[in-house]
Amino acid sequence: MNKKFFTLMLALLILWLPGCNKTGRNIEEKNENLKEQIPESVAAPPMVKNPLTGLLMEKEREGRRPFAIMVENEKSARPQSGLNKADVVYEILTEGGITRFLAIYLGEDAEEIGPVRSARPYFIDFAMEYDSVYVHYGGSPQAYSDLKKYGNIDNIDGIYDNVTFWRDKTRRAPHNAYTSTQNIMKTAEKRGYLRTVKLDERDFADEENATFGALREFELDYSRNYRVKYAYDEEKKSYIRYINDKPHVDRKTGEPIAVKNVIVQFMDTRVIDSEGRLAIKTTGSGTGYYISDGNCTYINWEKASRFAKTRYTTEDGRELNLNPGNTWIQIMPSWAQIKFNLIN
Length: 344
Known about the structure:
With 344 residues, the chain is of the alpha+beta class.
């Protein structure tokens, strides 16, 4: 009985093996076909030059409207989120000697930006240089008046919007309103703010600017508690930001903010009301400095109208060529101090 069973099983095995081999060959053939269909390396997305930084960005961002976002800088707001992702950042005084940021985003997304705070009229002037969607949380009376007066300023206001913004419960109000480029994109699309724009490309360096000295570090004094310092990092070829002698870090990464280009502009600044609100003359012309790659040069600036692009020139009248990378623009009162630490 056992012998018959063994003989039967052997016969079945002999009959099955060719089919098994055929199936194995089919699997191998399919695997080879799949290998042929999969490219050796996944193609990178097409890239174009970012008109704000001179660096490469994904082509799908070409012609996209930038977002200009008001970010707070009071002590309770630090460390901020997302400033390290911005292409351009303005730092300007508000009332009480406190500074605030206007962060311009195009080349990169930021999943958390803030804390977002209220609008001021002179921030609007710079936001409109980029034909941007202006994002804020409230505003001064004059800022609201300007937003109403100039109907072409597409803006998203957190006071009337609980979708684009969220409150971080680990921080106390009003220093806890945040947003993201993704949220802004959704709201802008829903409101019809998205359209193709043609941004004037900044002038990027193809030759060195004349300098008055190699600059290791420098300090900008806005007020007693708002002292900004930049220290040059040879390895990164950028300046590291400090606030009141402490590294200015990003909340999400914990890393200090590195800046390739720093532009210092001096502008007429005066107090206009009992709340300490300011009027800053953004139009006309003035002087300043351009600082990058450890070098500093004198510059002149000119802005023909409130929403016109600011033009920067060197002392000999040439257009200022920036080095490719992010830019921080420090708008300083004409009476403010800047301290240089030159390399001997």
